[in-house]
Amino acid sequence: MISGPNTSALGVMASGGLDSCILIGDLLRNEKAVQPFYIRTNLSWQNAELPALQNFLSAIKCESLRPLILLDLPLNDLYAGHWSLTGRNTPGADSPDEAVFLPGRNALLLIKAAIYCQLHGIAQLAIAPLGTSPFEDAGPQFFREFQAAMNRGVAHQVELLRPFGQLNKRQVMELGESLPLELTFSCIHPIRGLHCGRCNKCAERQHAFELVGRPDRTQYAA
To answer: What does the alpha-carbon distance between residue 208 and residue 19 come to, in Å, rounded to a whole number?
Structure first.
């Protein structure tokens, strides 16, 4: 059902990873009402990622945190044969960040949540890329142009926010100091629901905890 304006809540794209979960926690700490979104795309790690996100949100539950909204955008046809669907030849721990780039990913995820926000009067939608991201579709120019394009001819416009757009990983991890980050999920090749400990994202996760000298209580399969 399409409802009227609901500008009291700030929409947040939630992946279950460190950055987006820290963003939610930081907004709640600053007394913002948060409406999290998760987009189910059928990528190989989502069967482990979504339950982790739900556990994290349950752990930080408060009056200002709205129930998670699940939206579906299956990418089986678009990414057919890609490692993100098959789970084969997943980029390893020693691979560069560019190895995990998924074409059009931010545009695909944003458009689904942004249209929901437009239809339900949610005025702002935040996503958690860092200022150190090497990907152009995580930068300020992409967000300005994407926002302008999607807001043409609609009754309720949505502002896209990058709250961590000037921060690096250490700074973001410091914002999450009091959060149960062991409940977050960052792996792209999970094994029996656990972080594999060997992929590009697991290596990034381990390094993030090292940056702030925080024990990594993540359960790794390896």
So the answer is: 10
Is residue 61 exposed (0-12), middle (13-18) or buried (19+ Cβ within 10 Å)? exposed
Q: What does each of the 222 residues of the chain score in pLDDT, given as a tens digit? A: 444 444 579 999 999 999 999 999 999 999 999 999 999 999 999 999 999 999 999 999 999 999 999 999 999 999 999 999 999 999 999 999 889 989 898 999 999 999 999 999 999 999 999 988 878 888 889 999 999 999 998 889 999 999 999 999 999 999 999 999 999 999 999 999 999 999 999 999 999 999 999 999 999 998
Phi-psi region of 30 (alpha: psi -120 to 50; beta: other; left: phi over 0): alpha
- Give the whole-angstrom CA distance, residue 22 versus residue 201: 16
DSSP-derived secondary structure for 74-95? --TTTTTT-HHHH--S--BTTS
